[in-house]
Amino acid sequence: QVQLVESGGGLVQAGDSLRLSCAASGSAFSTSAMGWFRQAPGKERMFVAGIASSGGRTYYTDSVKGRFTISRDNAKNTVYLQMNSLKPEDTAVYYCAARRGLRQSGAIYILGIEYEYWGQGTQVTVSS
């Protein structure tokens, strides 16, 4: 079992920055691919960013490229999402997700169905 707890959300103005954190329990974090998703009101949950268990590869949805950075600290069992130049359209509940692996790899997953574990979400609201 893996438990994920997100933090760092809040209300900010357009152009501001936020850093989301996702703390994972259990010993499987270092072999888990991690992802961030978001769900805006009335919309489906969408992929935002993913990072391989090795930490060597990342991938972003087009709308956040150049503004968001995903990273991980395996020693702290934590994955981060640094969000800069925030826009009102970034307003959503942000979820952290994990997919366990048998070993570290460079694989990244972009579909929600490919992830086994989810956090409870953290609200990010960007005012104009």
Structure, explained:
With 128 residues, this protein is mainly beta. The chain has strands at residues 4-7, 10-13, 18-24, 33-39, 46-51, 58-60, 68-73, 78-83, 92-99, 117-118, 122-127. The strands form two sheets. Strands 2, 4, 5, 6, 9, 10 and 11 form a seven-stranded mixed β-sheet that branches. It has a four-stranded antiparallel β-sheet with strand order 1-3-8-7, with no helix packed on it. A hairpin with a 6-residue loop joins strand 5 and strand 6. The termini are far apart.
Task: Supply database-style keywords.
128 residues, mainly beta, seven-stranded mixed beta sheet, four-stranded antiparallel beta sheet, 11 strands, 0% helix
Strand content: over 45%
Count of extended strands: 11
Low-confidence stretches: none
Q: How would a textbook summarize the main sheet?
A: 7 strands, mixed
**What's the alpha carbon Rg, rounded to whole Å?**
14 Å
- Proportion of helical residues: under 10%
Supply the helix-strand structural class: mainly beta
> How many separate helices?
0
C-alpha geometry: globular
Reading the helices and strands in chain order gives EEEEEEEEEEE
Distance between the termini: 40 Å
- Mean pLDDT, all residues: 96
Give a quick rundown of the structure.
This protein is mainly β. It is built from no helices and eleven strands.
List the helices and strands and how they pair.
Elements: E1 4-7, E2 10-13, E3 18-24, E4 33-39, E5 46-51, E6 58-60, E7 68-73, E8 78-83, E9 92-99, E10 117-118, E11 122-127
